[in-house]
Amino acid sequence: MLEDGGRRGGRAAGSAEDGVALSWSLNEVETPAGLAEALNSLRERSGLSHRDVQRLAEGRDQSLSKAKSSALCTQGRCSLATLKTFLAVCGVPDGQVAAWVRAWERSRGLARPRPPGALRVAEANARRLGVHRAIQVAGAAGELPAYVPRDLDEAPDGLRARLAIEAETSGFVVAVGGSSAGKTYTMYQAMLSVMPDWWLLHPDRAEQIDLYAEMDLRRVVVWLDDLQHFLGGATGLTGGSVRRLLVNEHVVLLGTLWPRHYSRYTDPVSAHYIERDLLGLAYVVRVPDRLSHHEMARARVAADTDPRIEAALTIRDFGFTQAMAGAPHLIERWRDAEGHCRAVLEAAIDAARLGVQSPLPETLLRAAAPAYCSGRERAEAGPGWFDEALAYGTAALHGVVSALMPVPKDDGSMGAAAGYWVADYLLQQTATERAEERIPDELWEACLAYITDPGDYIRLASSAEARQLQHHASQFYKRAAPHRPDAACQLARMLADEGRRKEAIEVLRPWSDAGDTEAAALLTTLLTDPAVDDADTAYVPVEEYTLSGHVEKAIAVLHRLAVSQPAGYLSDQGDETALRALADNGDWASAARLARLFAESGRFTELRDRADAGDRAAAFRLADLLLANGGEAELLDRAERGDGPACYRLAGHFFENGRRAEAVALLRPLAIAGDPYAVSLLARWAEGGRLK
Questions:
Q1: Contacts of 151 (CB under 8 A, 6+ apart)
Q2: pLDDT tens per residue across span 497-553
Q3: How far apart are alpha carbons 570 and 116 in whole angstroms?
Q4: Is the pTM for the entire model greater than 0.90?
Q5: Which InterPro entries match (predicted)?
């Protein structure tokens, strides 16, 4: 029987009322000959000759000649576009095209097994992909409202046209629009229209993209709603990961992003080089916050059958899409909050503004909220004040949104939330209003006490530095340092600036030993400073490892010390031959001492030779010597040949002397390539407000 076929005169081909059973099934088509038989049966049951097929195709402004139709029905070989034209001419409904496409793929040997965790686009749940629920109105049917087509849907250079182009090869498309502008629903509908039969992968972290790049994928959509959550930090999504993924044929990444995030990441003078490189790969579609006149007309037509759309059209103070998502009620809830209810909301909003992206624990909100209350409000609060405030913040408004959205626990347990997220639209609208408000110390302390995500620690530290709150910044960097090398390096710089170099060295040692280049470079700089007595600090980890039972680690440290500690003695004695032998044997401390010895005696040639051989300690010392002796031209030449220390030192020199554009230009290629030291330098300049 025909399982997923065409239709004739409005009836599905092969239906009971046709009274004819076909001898083939689309699920059984595996070869071009099998596809040809299926297509020919479809044409005959549609009552069409090959000349009819040509005529009907011309009526659609499409090309499908009589000869090509005949060849299609005898040989079964054609492009996907030709197949879809033939199906449309034969009256196959859109919902049945996917089965024909899968048969076409099998006939060409293009079918791929289902990727792990994937499902067909047509089977995806829009709500789980991030489409907001709409306001709840009596008489409304279904979880989602009728889709109101946007002008950009069918425009020649619009979203669906772009998706069709990218689907022919591979590509990356990002919809940029404000919260509740309808960008996710618009992108979902475009995907459903253009590629309903493709596989859909919905990752929840950036590292999964690297795993996808290792798979043999074809006709796959990777869905990245709220793209900002996949960007930034040591594990953020990079252009390199996307390029590796797009080597596969017919793989399309679809993302959504707020305008303020897009502007921040793509600002040409910002430190976000990795994110800017990534977004440079994407075709960007702008989704307006407000409906056009044509879109409003379509909304009024849809309102005849969907009372939710009718209700949203009556709200005048907000855009249609924002009204559909309950935005007016969010703002009213915020404006109307008083006392401890307002305090909990403000604490949550400020924590999110400072960079907390993980769910906000109740313990954090409970600890911070009193700082947002007046003395009288604290005195008059009843024993159930927090429960009342939490109930106020999480109350569903029009059955669709709440100011604070509960996040379920990962273990699947019932009746308790892992924490709360602030509604996107509320956060977007209040961010400007609260931009000048002072953050209470109690909130900083609550974040330190109850947040556990290293990425949150780094964002909180950056926010503290931007406010010149060095004490808070160092505390957050200290929490993140065991998990993130970039945090360890920033903490070490802060400690060194305060004269606490021994502590800075201990922060850097684990990451340097693990092979992190930025930590190793910074550690080398600290250890070769004459003011540092490394002998005192070097044995600290030995004691710690021994006391904790990690004897093998203590032995490994002692082995390194047995080699590296003589370096200081040999340097003091001027025993250059022995020092060189240790350095050539891979001992970093000896290499650093030898480089210092050469630098102090002005021996440029030896420094150049060792730097050219890959000795970074020598490269740093050479860069410092060249700067001090008017060797900027040579330093620039070395930087342009890929000498990292030369780039760092020369960029710093340019920057401190007002030549900021030249400094940025030097570091940009290294930062895009992922050089952590270059990224860190640019980030520190940007966070200090010095990149304008």
A1: 158, 292, 294, 295
A2: 888 888 998 999 888 877 777 787 787 777 655 444 444 444 444 444 445 555 455
A3: 59
A4: no
A5: TPR-like_helical_dom_sf
End-to-end C-alpha distance for the chain, whole angstroms: 69
Strand partners, 200: 119, 221
d(CA 354, CA 257): 19
Q: Are 593 and 599 in contact (CB under 8 A)?
A: no
Interatomic CA distance for residues 560 and 577, integer angstroms: 20
Give the chain's radius of gyration (CA, Å): 32
**DSSP readout, 35-78?**
HHHHHHHHHHHTT--HHHHHHHHHHTT----HHHHHHHHHH---
555 vs 56, residue with greater confidence: 56
Residue 605 has pLDDT above 60, yes or no: yes
Query: Residue 19: exposed, middle, or buried by beta-carbon count in 10 A (0-12, 13-18, 19+)?
Result: exposed
Per-residue pLDDT tens digits for 436-485: 788 999 999 999 999 999 889 999 998 898 888 999 999 999 999 998 88
If DSSP codes are grouped into helix, strand and coil, which group holds residue 305? coil
SS3 letters across 440-492: CHHHHHHHHHHCCCHHHHHHHHHHHHHCCCHHHHHHHHHHHCCCCHHHHHHHH
Q: Report which residue type is found at 606.
A: E
The pair of three-digit structure tokens given for residue 253, joined into one six-digit string: 């990444």
Least confident residue range of 274-283, 609-618, 640-649, 675-684: 675-684
Contact between residue 403 and residue 377 where contact means Cβ atoms under 8 Å apart = no
- Give me the residue label for tokens 């897009």: 262
- List of E strands, 209-362: 220-224, 251-257, 283-286
360/446 Cα distance (integer angstroms): 10
Query: Which residue blocks in 315-408 are alpha helix, DSSP H?
Result: 320-324, 327-336, 339-354, 362-368, 375-380, 385-394
